[in-house]
Amino acid sequence: xxxxxxxxxxxxxxxxxxxxxxxxxxxxxxxxxxxxxxxxxxxxxxxxxxxxxxxxxxxxxxxxxxxxxxxxxxxxxxxxxxxxxxxxxxxxxxxxxxxxxxxxxxxxxxxxxxxxxxxxxxxxxxxxxxxxxxxxxxxxxxxxxxxxxxxxxxxxxxxxxxxxxxxxxxxxxxxxxxxxxxxxxxxxxxxxxxxxxxxxxxxxxxxxxxxxxxxxxxxxxx
Amino acid sequence: xxxxxxxxxxxxxxxxxxxxxxxxxxxxxxxxxxxxxxxxxxxxxxxxxxxxxxxxxxxxxxxxxxxxxxxxxxxxxxxxxxxxxxxxxxxxxxxxxxxxxxxxxxxxxxxxxxxxxxxxxxxxxxxxxxxxxxxxxxxxxxxxxxxxxxxxxxxxxxxxxxxxxxxxxxxxxxxxxxxxxxxxxxxxxxxxxxxxxxxxxxxxxxxxxxxxxxxxxxxxxx
DNA sequence: TCGAGGCCAGTTGTGCACAACTCTGCGCAA
DNA sequence: TTGCGCAGAGTTGTGCACAACTGGCCTCGA
Lengths: 222, 222
Description:
DNA-binding; DNA-binding (chains A, B); Arc Repressor Mutant, subunit A; AsnC-type_HTH_dom (chains A, B)
């Protein structure tokens, strides 16, 4: 993260950037569920005082990624199975809305982004990396989110996505899921999505993604 | 608001309560869109310092109800038509999910609550009050939200509801909508919902509400 | 008369010290 | 030995003073 640029921005942008940074660390399991974060240490690392940092942590707490307890500490939350299932059921519905509600014409720029992501997916097949997989899936998610112009839908989908994104990585790390196989599946899925996008069939995109979410969840159960 | 009880609760509960209180003031137009709130005055009113109050304001800002600008002030946001339309389109979809996703059996307690609300609605027909209408609609919304056990869906629906709830009140205040007529319509709608609930037809509840939301938005356009 | 520049009151943002609270570990008594 | 209590370190929560910033007013010069 580019700490030097933190000085030139406005306060709100700093909060957004720090929020994104810490959120990514949680989702990439740099901070494991249950582990404790130190407000003092984080403030020192980012070169700010606890006050503005606490605003970032409060937001992450509202989003369900952190939990602060007075006198104890700030812990990274864990996600239990019931909660995970609820999120996935809701995401399966929202992904359909993302192509039905206030749809945006598919731009060449978006197609190019998805093609680039497909290439990354194919690259991962020969050199699997769980972290890179996570980043790639995140980028794909954010790219496809631009298919809708509905701002509240975008915001909610994003919150939900990051709420449970780390579970997949946890399962891979614990060898409950086979990374190699996931990479193969993902490359095929990305190709499917790109194909539907190129045909301009947004409805198909939605249902393809819905199926992928459902299957991904099914594989995680094991 | 019961300020005396603020002392005995934990910090988190205080934040939740203050958040709810200020949110209601915004939604009931005690704080008009565009008006400025003073952090100092609010802190004094609630008998706390600016620090914990600012956490509440930050949350309201994340929810889109406030907007703080450094050196200028904290303003109540206004809702433009495009945003309103987006929220309503999304709410029309979510209201269907509220009865389809993780449905909860209809309890007698819930039926009793809805019956009580129906009585309030009928009472308002003879003595219309925009503020009471708002509170009643909010209570109905929160009651029906218990039809689903899906926590993320509840949270998001709630955020969306309070995001634009004040628009209706604004339109009534500006006489763009006829309060008397709205009260009549609402009593009928509440009866419809109660009827479907008593029959245990959750799918019907969802679609009835969807229609109501759509019609309510249509009346607001004028 | 008009315009530019700066001063001032008022606001949000930040840093820091302390209060409130929890948990661990040690000592002491039964 | 075991249980209780207490003290201390460490953490989040709060209050307060000041920094950073904005917008309007006022002054001064052309």
